[in-house]
Amino acid sequence: MPKVTEEHKKKRRREILDVAKKVFIKQGFQATTMSDIVSASNMSRGGVYSYFSTTDEMYKAIIAENDQSFEAYFQNLMQMKSYWNALLIYLDDLERSAYDDVREGFGIVAYEYLVMTWREKERIQFFKDRVDQYIKLFAGLIESGVKREEFHPVQSSEAIALMIINTNDAVYLLSMTVGADKARVKDQVKSLKIYLRYVLQVKHIE
Amino acid sequence: MPKVTEEHKKKRRREILDVAKKVFIKQGFQATTMSDIVSASNMSRGGVYSYFSTTDEMYKAIIAENDQSFEAYFQNLMQMKSYWNALLIYLDDLERSAYDDVREGFGIVAYEYLVMTWREKERIQFFKDRVDQYIKLFAGLIESGVKREEFHPVQSSEAIALMIINTNDAVYLLSMTVGADKARVKDQVKSLKIYLRYVLQVKHIE
DNA sequence: ATATTAAATGACAACAGTGTCGTTTTTTAT
DNA sequence: ATAAAAAACGACACTGTTGTCATTTAATAT
Description:
Two copies of one chain form a homodimer. By secondary structure, chain A is mostly helical. The first copy, chain A, has nine helices and no strands. Chain A has helices at 6-27, 34-40, 45-51, 55-78, 83-100, 107-117, 121-147, 157-178, 185-200. In chain A, helix 8 (157-178) packs antiparallel against helix 9 (185-200). The N and C termini of chain A lie far apart (59 Å). The interface between A and B is large, with 45 and 45 residues. Chain A binds a DNA duplex (30 and 30 nucleotides) through helix 1 and helix 3.
């Protein structure tokens, strides 16, 4: 084909990213070759290469989309009347997804990428930015709660935010590798709740 | 050379493992080829192959040694009069090593391996066993504390143990990728202390 | 000293994955 | 219809890695 609409190109790009995401999740980032994605797509080698010339580019595109949709989900949480309730719902969702669909999610791919590539200096900024972005979200929620006098934290919002993120990560990682039961997801979420209720000094609970 | 003592073979094996460990830490597990290790060693390709035929075997050997030395360290902790103090020392060590030598440690390689290989069914048992092993250590410490009426936990020892392990992991992982400061190691350790003091209901503190 | 044994060597064939590029195909404009 | 443009194709040369094996070398036994 030839001189084609922008729309068509966007669609092609989408198709490739969808295929790539599936393949990444199924067999891991590093184990995925360009050839794998070419085979899984219904395009030719050259065709795929004209959109993305490395799996790394694909990863970056997918993770950006993922982060964006997490932000949307998070904005939704922020609409709630009670920020504590928002946190509880977040924790519920975490628990549920650890049981239900961790293994179908892109999360593990993100870990794999992180753990595999942190040695390359030029990527460190990328990771730092992502950490900041996520800290900002949760710290923002906490500070909003403080303004409304729902929370009276005994630690900095950032420290608490990071604890949430870290526990989230740990729960996901372990669930994926040894299963949600063995990872004691329920217990871990409960532990985080215990910690949060204490450090946030939550008023008007539940 | 030829028909050589067991001792000599052990030494050779050691040499190879030492080299492999260095290379793994420097460039990551997956990025390390047999050829890399051959070059880094002062043996020939065939020589190395006669001891280990994959990097996977090397990894398994190294991680076993690592786990063993962690157990030794832990047994040491268990000798202390106060189990709470033992935990505090453990947390101190965690904090210190996150600042000082995370990047020289084998920990990140272990993550990489975990995250890269969990899809292979036959490895899941390996991971499960390791998790159990570590839970057992910490849960054991907690239970000893209970027997001595130092602790009066409000959660199961295993759940608490896992929270320690998870935080440990998260702190290491983040420290390595974005640095100990950005990972707010001090804060995270403090958070864990807060959590522990509450769930363990520690008596005779410090 | 010499023979025996096996440890160690390194060249090599086989394989997997990459990136390119001349060719084909299809769309749009005329 | 036809021409022009570029999207898509896929064969291919290239590179890096692996595992092997005939050969060399050195330790031990006699």
